[in-house]
Amino acid sequence: MLTVLVDGIASGMLLFVLAVGLSVTLGLMNFVNLAHGAFGMAGGYVCVVLLNRHGVPFVVCLLAAALFAALLGLLLERVLYRRLYGRDHLDQVLFSIGLVFIAGAVVDWFLGARQQLITLPAWLSGRIELGFVGIGVYRLFLIGLCGAIVLALHLGLVRTRFGSRLRAAVDDAVVARGLGIPVERLFAVTFALGSGLAGLGGALGVEVLGLDPTFPLKYMVYFLIVVAVGGANTVLGPFVAALLLGVVDVAGKYYVPQLGAFAIYTAMVVLLILRPQGLLAKAAAR
Amino acid sequence: MFRSVPRRALLAAGATGLVAPLAAPAIAQGAAIRIGLILPMTGPFASTGRQIDAAVKLYLRQNGDALGGRRVEVLLRDDTGTAPEVTRRLAQELVVRERVRALAGFGLTPLAFAAAPVATEAKVPMVVMAAATSVIVQRSPFILRTSFTLPQVTAPIAEWALKEGIRSAATLVTDFAPGLDAERVFKERFAAGGGQVPLELRTPLRNPDYAPFLQRVRDTKPQALFIFVPSGEGAAVMKQFAERGLAEAGIRLIGTGDVVDDDILNDMGRPALGAVTSHHYSAAHDSAENKAYVAAFTAANPGMRPNFMSVGGWDGMQLIAEGLKSTNGAGEGEALLNAMKGKSWTSPRGPVTVDANTRDIVQDVYIRRVEERGGQLWNIEFDRLQAVRDPGT
User: Which sequence ranges are marked TM in the entry (chain A) (predicted)?
Assistant: First the structure.
């Protein structure tokens, strides 16, 4: 029982790290970026290649994955994405879904279509018994790391100057620009940050979610659910949503395996009926 | 609607395929015999395609690409593994345009189903080298199989578990036709011998996270867990099996050999050690034929180990070669089909026969355990059931 809960929280946390960037692009820049998962995939493959082919320590791989995805995000934002900010949503959707297919094909070409496997270092594998419950060490690691990221993001957004500028740009980009806030640069940095987090999530997820060239498509739905249920443009909304979905998903598979993946969609429908504005959003937001 | 045009074109193509072999008997004697090979060379099942393609190429190289006195040309087509309509179109093109003497390959059950009507209409023998659902051979009188069937390899592990004194076993299978085949046969055999199946789990084909399922198994505490997942998924299951501590809880891992596929067995690492599975081929099979096969295969494809898919491809070529030999290279259509029925030979996997009536493969099935030898993981065979047939649907 408790094990199921812990597993659910761990998978929810992971989902959050992967999806939070999407909620930022959607909420802040009003840009529908379906290719968000591709950055996660990029991070995952960086981690796999470094770990398996070059024997780099796992923690260094995670950092490299995040950094690579962030730089990739920055590059693509400057070269491609910014051209589509002003366009309507259909253009953005078509553009980004095309990017997903390109990313999948590129990975397939260079690294093959098979599932990628990694071997975790000894200190992260196995499980520990806490009283009645046995918990995988890696899941605890996920919860700890992702929890720290959530806290950092939340404080960063609420307490720092960067955060307040960002929130100002979200609320009204025109006025923010008028006040001398460099909205353009803010967008780029935020986009890179979101991509970097996705890359980190992808690397963390290799062990739990698997990794192959269809990764961005497979998990796109999950990311969108997190953002839709959580509401864009906050950190805590998607976080609560991701936790909820993670727990519901794992518990559903445990208690009613016949239902398969339906538990998560049922949860989404119910939540959207109850809180169409998103979990934590005030009724009159935006 | 613009859909009607291609459909009509397809119908026409199908009709041409039907009359072509009758209208044009015996093409010039010197021309090469063409064989159409349809495999998933890209997409999620590309490893199946790569293994079979490598084995087919190896077979041709070793046999001087002249079978039954005639030069043989293999035309490889990629059906991506997930699109039955593509498989069907490719089969049609190969039959109509390239005039192939036989179709071969077929990575998954739905793909074999899609091509079956083409083989029937055009009267072209179709050699199934991979797909493993029982009913496939019934879909066309022109289908012959050189891979295996899931019931064929599942029944032996159920018998073995009973013999080992295992009385309760949970099942975990992937929710698609071969998985359901495996689940049904395991349960029937195991229950018939007095075993209990307290828990039956089916995981979705796409993106399964095995953790919750395995946690459920651990909490149910059976003596063993029977697993079938498609080749390639095994590693993920194995990892969760270890992480959840199922082995420490006294639950033994048994299954069909798909779980410990030779292609990725080494990447699974220590968690795989000790898993007992039943299958028709292990790269560690102890015979002169297999040693030669593995050595030649690895030499031609560095870093790759032949798995059960590759041996299905190798034997498929062997079957076609035997058929062509018996007919002095002239056989086609029904004559070639009849020449292939009932053939026996010694494969790298051991003695095999393609049954004359069922057109399905009859072969030895081995019980193997994962062990470490020379720094690598292998499926070491320790028991054998001779001449196992598909127990039927």
Answer: 9-28, 58-81, 93-111, 132-157, 186-209, 221-248, 254-274
Whether B71 and chain A come into contact, CB under 8 Å, resolves to: no
pTM, two decimals, is 0.78
Task: Give the span between the Cα atoms of B376 and B373, in whole angstroms.
Answer: 5
Instruction: Give how far Cα B248 sits from Cα of A7, A137, B254, Å.
Output: 19, 16, 15
pLDDT for B152-206, tens place per residue?
999 999 999 999 999 999 999 988 888 898 999 999 999 999 999 999 998 877 6
State the Cα–Cα distance between residues B143 and B149, nearest whole angstrom.
14
Distance CA(B308)–CA(B137), nearest Å, equals: 19
| Chain B interface test: which of A254, A258, A259, A264 (most B C-beta within 10 Å) | A254
Q: Give the distance from residue A71's alpha carbon to the nearest chain B alpha carbon, in angstroms.
A: 28
- Which token pair is A80? 């491609």
Complex ipTM value: 0.72
Q: Closest approach of chain B CAs to the CA of A16, in angstroms?
A: 17
The domain ranges of chain B are 4-148+289-359, 151-279+366-388
Q: What is the mean pLDDT of residues A114-119?
A: 78
How is residue B103 written in tokens?
A: 């179709």
* Test the A interface: residue of B201, B243, B258 with most A CBs within 10 Å: B243
Q: Is B303 on the interface with A (CB under 8 A)?
A: no
Tell me the per-residue pLDDT of B244-253, one tens digit each, with 9 for 90 and over: 888 888 899 9
Residues B270, B274, B275, B281: is their CA dihedral positive or negative?
positive
- DSSP-derived secondary structure letter, B8: H
The two domains B4-148+289-359 and B151-279+366-388 share their CATH topology (first three levels equal) = yes
Angle at A189 between CA A163 and CA A231, to 5 degrees: 55
Interface test with B, best of A1, A3, A14, A117 (most B CBs within 10 A): A117
Please give the residue of chain B at the shortest CA–CA distance from A52: B267
Residues 6+ apart with CB under 8 A from A76: A99
Over residues A83-88, the mean pLDDT reads 83
Q: For the domain with range B151-279+366-388, which CATH number is right: 3.10.310.10, 3.30.499.10, 3.40.50.1970, 3.40.50.2300? A: 3.40.50.2300
> Given an 8 Å threshold on Cβ–Cβ distance, is A113 in contact with B201?
no
Residue A284 has pLDDT above 50, yes or no: no
Q: Does B268 sit within 8 Å of A218, measured CB to CB?
A: no
Q: Which CATH number fits domain B4-148+289-359: 3.40.50.2300, 3.30.420.40, 3.90.1150.200, 3.40.50.150?
A: 3.40.50.2300
